[in-house]
Amino acid sequence: MHQFEARLEIIGINPYVQVPASILQDLFTLAGKRKGPIPIKGTINGKSYRQTLVRYQGDWCLYVNTTMLKKSPQRIGEIVRLTISYDPSDRSVNMHPKLKNALLKTPAANQVFNNLIPSRQKEIVRYIAQLKSEESVDRNVKRAIDFLLGKDRFAGRDKP
Fold first, then answer.
1. Are 140 and 128 in contact (CB under 8 A)?
2. Going by DSSP bridges, is the β-strand pair 2-7/59-63 parallel, antiparallel, or unpaired?
3. Is residue 108 classed exposed, middle or buried when 0-12, 13-18 and 19+ CB atoms within 10 A define those classes?
4. 55-75 confidence digits (pLDDT tens)
5. What whole-number distance in Å separates Cα of residue 160 and Cα of residue 151?
6. Which of 15, 36, 62, 65 is 20 to 30 A (C-alpha) from 82?
7. Is the Cβ–Cβ distance between 70 and 3 less than 8 Å?
8. pLDDT (tens digit, 9 = 90+) per residue, 15-29?
């Protein structure tokens, strides 16, 4: 586990911190890669988080959302205390059975889903998996299928 302090900065509307190069090198070694998202965990000002390190315009950024740090967009410029380590734990999300059944019953939507980039597939699966009520699941499975068939938007996304 590495410790460091960093100034909270912003790209567009996204607060982030830069991770020191020496720590990045260790994370790359532990992850076995220098490309793609790197799963990490740690603390920010003493509060635990699970996040993903990503590269944006050549720089590796640790985006800081409001669940990690309350009112983070209003705190730009603040120095925060962080710990960080590579997180090899499984982060896969199981597809909700109702989404799986709907895809099987709608081959055209299933084909579009299978042709989506993996991160977009994961976004749809994760969105539906986190819903609490069966009514919400039913409503959003229908919306996801309509989205895949090019009929509507879903989860803030335009038609595929």
1. yes
2. unpaired
3. exposed
4. 888 888 899 988 888 888 888
5. 10
6. 36
7. no
8. 999 999 999 999 999
